[in-house]
Amino acid sequence: MNKKQVSNEHHHFPWDHPRFRSWIAVARACQLMQQTLTRRLAHLDIKPPHLDILINLYRFDGITQQELARKLLVGRSNMSMLLPQLEKRGLIERRGDARDKRILRLSLTAAGRVLTEEAMEIQTALIDDSHGGAPIEDCMKIAESMERMIAVLLKEDRELS
Amino acid sequence: MNKKQVSNEHHHFPWDHPRFRSWIAVARACQLMQQTLTRRLAHLDIKPPHLDILINLYRFDGITQQELARKLLVGRSNMSMLLPQLEKRGLIERRGDARDKRILRLSLTAAGRVLTEEAMEIQTALIDDSHGGAPIEDCMKIAESMERMIAVLLKEDRELS
DNA sequence: TGCTTTTTGTTCATCCTTGTACAATCATGT
DNA sequence: ACATGATTGTACAAGGATGAACAAAAAGCA
């Protein structure tokens, strides 16, 4: 009659575990969010990965490619593929560092800043839309859970390197 | 001194909005989860997309490629690329339907079922690990929030078609 | 100083994902 | 029955992400 008995029955399928079901929902929501954001950004001719980059350049002017890749949880080679595109479009600038000639410091151009602000408004509008007026406290709770998970998973990452 | 005054100041940057910060955390957690799962599944020679397919075949035997693609929120062409691989490896079977010759009905082979069970254990273990003993009620609350978002975003999807 | 190791960014091959165009089959309406 | 439109799966080209191999530059150390 207690919890242990109930959970020791035959139905040990993953989708019967609350945590599993919950995580599947999170993953699907992320997926849908990406797809919807892709559609809403289409007229600006950028995609979510580009926006991630632009937002970080907006916040952290002069960041390096390495730091940027680490923040976005992607490989350095990914930045090497995407950043030249944004540079050619005149949205960002890459300047070599005087002290360390390996480093390229990134910053937004005026045009890049304008486009980033426009895109960020689209993203925040989408986030507000999709949350459908859910209470802020729920968001805070979710953020805490997610940040705990991120910490755990990042620790596993470090240990492998 | 009240909340309204505080939030009406100059700092209308997205990352000052609780919902925005919360969603970024969700997205990053998903990303990390995928990467970690990829590593933990490597020795089975499958990746998260394959596991998604296998789990759905495990649950819904005889599903069609179309239905599978819809459940996974991916395009039909994606299934056309991945399923032949799994079929060649002897993990799944594709049989034509008698009544509707367009349809291919999918099912797991014995080997596929074994591998799926093994992979599902890895995934549930990872989910449990990463949640670090967080209370089940929190997971349920998160699941509810995410499912509400999914409903909203899916509705926008339908309206576009 | 000179040698080794580490860090930073690029290049390349590979795979995943998408969208479009297409062929086959079915459903619908006349 | 027959023409039209919808649905299902495939083929192909294009773009994004990854990891490994690589060159240049810096840091550590004898």
Structure report:
2 copies of one chain form a homodimer. Chain A has 161 residues and is mainly α. Chain A has one domain: Winged helix-like DNA-binding domain superfamily/Winged helix DNA-binding domain (Arc Repressor Mutant, subunit A, Orthogonal Bundle), CATH 1.10.10. Chain A is 68% helix and 7% strand. The first copy, chain A, has 7 helices and 3 strands, in the order H-H-H-E-H-H-E-E-H-H. The first copy, chain A, has a 3-stranded antiparallel beta sheet. In chain A, helix 3 crosses helix 6. Chain A is globular, with a radius of gyration of 20 Å. The N terminus of chain A is likely disordered. Chains A and B meet through helix 2, helix 6 and helix 7 of A and helix 2, helix 6 and helix 7 of B. Chain A binds a DNA duplex (30 and 30 nucleotides) through helix 5. Chains A, B: InterPro entries: HTH_MarR-typ (IPR000835), Tscrpt_reg_MarR-type_CS (IPR023187), WH-like_DNA-bd_sf (IPR036388), WH_DNA-bd_sf (IPR036390).
Any chance you could write out the topology, listing elements then pairs?
The structure is a homodimer of 161-residue chains.
Chain A (H helix, E strand, L loop, with lengths): L2 H5 L10 H24 L6 H12 L3 E2 H8 L3 H13 L3 E5 L7 E5 L1 H22 L4 H25 L1
Helix pairs in contact in A: 2-6, 3-6, 4-5
The structure holds a DNA duplex (30 and 30 nucleotides).
Low-confidence stretches of chain A: 1-8
Beta-strand segment tally of chain A: 3
The CATH topology of chain A comes to Arc Repressor Mutant, subunit A
Name the chain pair with the biggest interface and residue counts per chain. A-B, 53 and 53 residues
- The order of strands across the largest sheet of chain A is 1-3-2
* Number of DSSP helical runs of chain A: 7
How many strands, what sense, and barrel or not for the largest sheet of chain A?
Answer: 3 strands, antiparallel
> How many domains in all of chain A?
1
Helix content of chain A: 55-70%
Mean pLDDT of chain A: 89
The CATH architecture of chain A comes to Orthogonal Bundle
User: Alpha-carbon distance between the termini of chain A?
Assistant: 46 Å
Helix/strand order of chain A: HHHEHHEEHH
Overall 3D shape of chain A: globular
- Quaternary status: homodimer
The SS-based structural class of chain A is: mainly alpha
Report the C-alpha radius of gyration of chain A, rounded. 20 Å
